[in-house]
Amino acid sequence: MNFCSHCGSADLQFRIPDQDNQPRFVCDNCHTIHYQNPKMVTGCLPVWEDRVLLCRRAIAPAYGLWNVPSGYLENGESVADGARREVREEAAAEVTIDYLITVYDLEKVNQVYLQFVGELAGGRYGIGPESLESRLFREEEIPWKDIAFTSSAYTLRAYFANRKSGEQLLHRGSFPETAPPQ
Amino acid sequence: MNFCSHCGSADLQFRIPDQDNQPRFVCDNCHTIHYQNPKMVTGCLPVWEDRVLLCRRAIAPAYGLWNVPSGYLENGESVADGARREVREEAAAEVTIDYLITVYDLEKVNQVYLQFVGELAGGRYGIGPESLESRLFREEEIPWKDIAFTSSAYTLRAYFANRKSGEQLLHRGSFPETAPPQ
């Protein structure tokens, strides 16, 4: 942030405003305070029979690695709507959202992942423009060394733990502190 | 947004960038795309014995109404850290986070509420600078007509439903669609 997006002034300072306790970009010309907050990444692990659908990323970061379909929540969307959209965009598939399985904090990059489990409609899927490949995996086939992000590995571990115990538990994790669900 | 925060140009357009499907503010001078995404509001309902702690707001909006301590998640924070901070700021109290009870979508204002249940440490609390008053309420004492936001009413209903059933269910709601938990 080099200029005030309200008045165009370069007279910006990064300081704690009056009656606040966090530093913000403050415009000393028009007095606008520019708040910056974490973003949500929403996604869904599509399940079909005993298999789960992953997509191999065609974009940076983590190009070529396998991922739970996920992406930034957009303005005007509910978290579940965003998750359905990401599955549509990355796997050319429809899901029926089942339950929220993961809340995963990535404080260092100002992100929070919210990932659902859903049923892959009709077992049908394709390859979205951001994917190189989509594939259904049994638990023993998961390419653990080629999973794109720790959040996705966490959600996969959480899902298989839930399936084993017959529960629909929400798992709360973070990078790098949390041990994966067993 | 009137000016590009990167280069200061007023040559901004709100349009769908190449290889995207959502309209964004795009700078036609330096080509920066300015993404805008929903914000998270994090909070915690502090519980002490058979009572819950609410704070009466000393700030707009909803000045004078009762609320579950909540506020915007800040950069660098986990969702639970943000909830603990909000309880500290609004109720001058410490909580031990117990579980996530609510994910509440407010698509129209680009917000998602994430609220926990926690134990009020030692039953001690005060009045933070953003509160007029703090008070412990039994279920039958809750001032339902003077609750600040639908998200807080939803979380209170969810908590009393969970306490009745002995479960720690996550409830997913939204405004205005969702019926409150019973």
UniProtKB/TrEMBL annotation, chains A, B:
Ranges where the Nudix hydrolase domain occurs: 37-160
Under what name is this protein listed?
ADP-ribose pyrophosphatase YjhB (NUDIX family)
CDD domains, from UniProt? NUDIX_Hydrolase
- Organism (species): Neolewinella xylanilytica
- InterPro entries in alphabetical order: NUDIX_hydrolase-like_dom_sf, NUDIX_hydrolase_dom, Nudix_N
> Which top-rank group of organisms is this from?
Bacteria
